Amino acid sequence: MLNINIFQGKKHSGAHSFSVGTLTAFLSFLFLAAAVTSFCAPNAHAVRLKDISSISGVRNNQLTGYGLVVGLGGTGDKRDDLTASTLTNMLEGMGIAAGSAQVEARNVASVMVTANLPASAKAGSSINVTISSIGSASSLQGGVLLQTPLMGIDGKVYAIAQGALVVGGFSAQGQAASAQKNHTTVASIPNGAIVEREIPFTFNNQRELTINMHVHDFTTTQQTVERLNESLGGQYANANDASTIKLQIPAEFQGNLVPLMASIENLNITPQNAAKVVVDEKTGTIVIGKDVKLAKVAIAHGNLQVTIQENVDVVQPNAFAQGTTVASPVTDLMAKEESRNLHLVEGATLQELVDGLNAIGATPRDLISILKALKSSGSLYADLEVL
Predict the structure, then answer these.
(1) 81-120: pLDDT as tens digits
(2) In what side-by-side order are the strands of the sheet with 383-386?
(3) In Å, how far from its chain's centre is CA 194?
């Protein structure tokens, strides 16, 4: 049975005696608390602008490289031609002649190295890298990444990665048993790459900023425009669409945008999201937004369970008797359908919607079917997204 819960404050009551002075002080406290609550109510669900938006140009840039991990203790690639030829080429570059046929790559693994380079990263700074096996290695535990150039989409090298790997798990195996915890063919190196080339981007030279809203909603975007203009004291911001805001740089901030960004990124915005229900059929997860409403509707949901069991009846002749063994397949089929009553559900508020769905007594898998039927009937006033 499914139980949907929402979290709310608890009320406590009890009998108390007050003197006149105590009662006066208590009433004064209640008046002050009510005033504070009333003053703070409009921003009760407000979030900072920087938590629901991003600034165009202030972004990460993806880097990728191919490298070798050594020192794996027999868990590397098993006679992989790519790994063997790469290791041979590297040794020849160091002046060591070794044919690929002579290279045993059990302690070496071919890997892809990925990283995100911030736009503000300067030459000499460090960034984190992720290492993923692309061969037949069973574990990267205990390995060391050899010097690996990391390139951007333009083919230029922006960072160099090297260092000991950190693997968030382990694996061990014997002749007849094995044990593994977490994923052992993906590892990381904190601050494992040194930036060699900077992104050609000068933040302070901009005359206009583009704010990309994460919430694609006209109401939220217009609210953000009004808050920006109110904060800057002029008509500097305007919305191009439901998620894009153009901000003209005021004269006093031109050439020095950091103080401007520090002032506007902490503006309080109250996002207004469209009503949505999200269901994940793979895991049975259901998320219902606070603005979801239901029309007054009666629901009955019963499960139909069909069980098919296959058996084989074997008839053998007696000892010393003539004849052969006969095997006859037998199929047992059983169908069971639950009988459920109609339940009246009306979701004027989230609490009423939750109470109505709990009253049906459905499992998460049943509730997914109910939500689909409600959407098809036009009784669900929300977008239904099935993952």
Answers:
(1) 788 788 888 888 888 777 655 566 788 999 999 999 998 8
(2) 285-288, 276-280, 383-386
(3) 28
